[in-house]
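Fold Annotation — chain and its backbone

Encoding — discrete vocabulary of local shapes
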Amino acid sequence: MRNSNLVFKDYTPSQVMLLPPSLEELIEENHPVRVVNAVIDQINVEPLLKQYKPGGTSVYHPRMLLKVLVYGYLTNIYSSRKLEAALKENIHMMWLSAMNRPDHNTIARFRSERLKDALRQVFGQVVELLVEEGLVSIKNIYTDGTKIEANANKYTFVWGRAIQTSKERIAKQLDELWDYTQELAEEELSSEEKPDFKEIDKEKVSQTIERIDKALEDKPVNKKVKQKLNYAKKNWPAKLEEYAEKEAIMGENRNSYSKTDPGATFMRMKEDHMLNGQLKPGYNLQISTSDQFIVNYSIHQNPTDTLTLKPHLQQYQNIYKTNPESICADAGYGSEENYDYLEKQTIEPYVKYNYFHKEQSKKWKENPFRADNLHYNEEKDKLYCPMGQPMDRIADRKSESSAGYKQTYARYQAKNCNGCSLRGSCHKSKGSRIVEINHNLRRHKQKVRQNLFSDQGLAHRSKRPWDVEAVFAAIKHNRGFRRFMLKGTDKVEIEAGLLALAHNLAKKAA
């Protein structure tokens, strides 16, 4: 039976309004879209205007397109096609764009081409506005990194080690062919010196095969050797040219890349859904924060954080034309090269190093046999063994890192360990014990320990996890951004900049 007491609100979708409401009235006063609009209206867009050439037909204003992209990233809309749809359906987007409707191609071109050389300057201007408002400081920064998957096929990989193995195999077979030829045609090769096959390239292999082929002319060559020589002549030079091209793409500091995005390196991701440690093509995103605002960002192809600190801070210097007063980071950044750089730039380091936490354990501190626990007399340049006997400096060992940084290790040797009651616990080498000490790194560690245990250091250490790591949580989990949309290092860096801008403006709005 129908209830006559039911009352419904008026619903007449086909009714025409005499005075339709404006978009301005439909948007809340404190909505994030107003923050995006107000902040980007304050910045100087001259860097963006330089990307355009005069003449031709009219184009959409870069300030409007920038607002649309930033607000899109703020509301988890990353696809240019979805942004195009939002400009027709979303009242906030309609208001922000003043009812302009650029298509997805226009949005995509603006993002990947126009923003390339201008976005970092825009980002810096926004941060400086936040500094003026007292929301953020760029003096003391907290730095960390995370890996984000690239828009690349995870099975189209190129490995540096595989290339090296293939080149070594060709070199070995070429060496065997030369030895065979020398036995069979000794007179023809008697005047020629055997080539060095440690380093081979297309030209060297082609010339060597030609010499072998000429020497074996009219000789009774083994059928299998002849087949191998023909195969080598046909394939090896082209293969070595291919390997050289791949090594050029990979560069010196990488050991892999993806064929579908050569800028991406295969890295171990935290998001391992298969739980098998599978490597995926990705980029290392580095950020520096202050009160959970991003003040610097950079994209790196190297999966280890150690090599990223110097270029990351150079990006900071390019933006603000100065250095931060201090930096706080975890042990992944604690290297001699990084400490030297921070000292040279007069940046106070609150950067842990490997074994920093282990050093605080009772077991570590009370172990008198550890090289780090041996007493060093700087004036006499002598170490003292656990028995109190002096150890003389016998030599220096030089080493060079993969990045080209040179290190010096001083070697100290005990005078006579024979008959020492502590020898079994002290060392197990046959002769007298030799200890290597990196004095420069030891000096840096001592300073860093003092910094980290100071009141300021303890405050930085407690603040770092919730300052910088919380930002990554917001990007990956709140914004759902776990994979880049664009391909190539330059374009991925643009996406990182849009993410940073969107995060800062969302934080300001909140």
Notes: The mean pLDDT is 90.
